[in-house]
Amino acid sequence: MTDKSATDTPTTPTQLGFGVDVGGSGIKGGIVDLDTGELVGERFKVLTPQPATPDAVARGVAEVVAHFDWAGPVGITLPGVVTEGVMRTAANIDKAWIGTDVYELFGKQLDNRAVSVLNDADAAGMAEDRYGAGKGVDGVVMLLTFGTGIGSAIMINGNLVPNTELGHLQVGKKEAEHQASSRVRDEKGWSYEKWTEKVSEVLKTYEALFWPKLFIAGGGISRKSDKWIPLLTNATPVVPAALLNTAGIVGAAMAVSQGLKT
Asked: Whole-angstrom Cα distance, residue 18 to residue 30?
């Protein structure tokens, strides 16, 4: 008699997606296991062309996709606001992007396959909310990336509120990112104690407006979270991002799997 126990056990095929994260210095992408949020194999990166014009970047994205022989839908992040398929701002990328129809652009380079294009912080927020530091947290979860500026993403019960750009919110006499980004800390030579005073002021302002359940701190400085997160004086819990360099790729793959278009 044949033992059918092994063959009769139903298996659910892994759902795969593909994401590309466009940054000021590199264009990186990879295949994503959408069940776990983990990359399948290594990510692949090419340098962001200089100048980072739309056509040049789109060719770089196509190169990353071709490296994996990926023929399916592609999610893409960009460092700027995307609404109705049009790039409205351009941070750390060529200003020629402003006004660009991103779906037409990437459609030409990727054989008119299904594409989703969204802000890079929004993609990271989606990934952290589902698979990372925000997993299992209901209500409002806010990702804030502390770097050259302050990127933001707001998730409400797993749903994205796109293009929030809260780094530009006026806090006191200055925009939030002009007083609490990690770039400002570096330029002024502030201690963590001095810098977190400014960060706390910004977070308290966000709390008063959105009443989040959780803040997730991203950006390079999140790797040293043990040195500064305990110094914060705002009320809402703050935790470091968990996915780090893969968050944008994972969030982009999520977006296209959901058919999200901002």
From this structure: 6
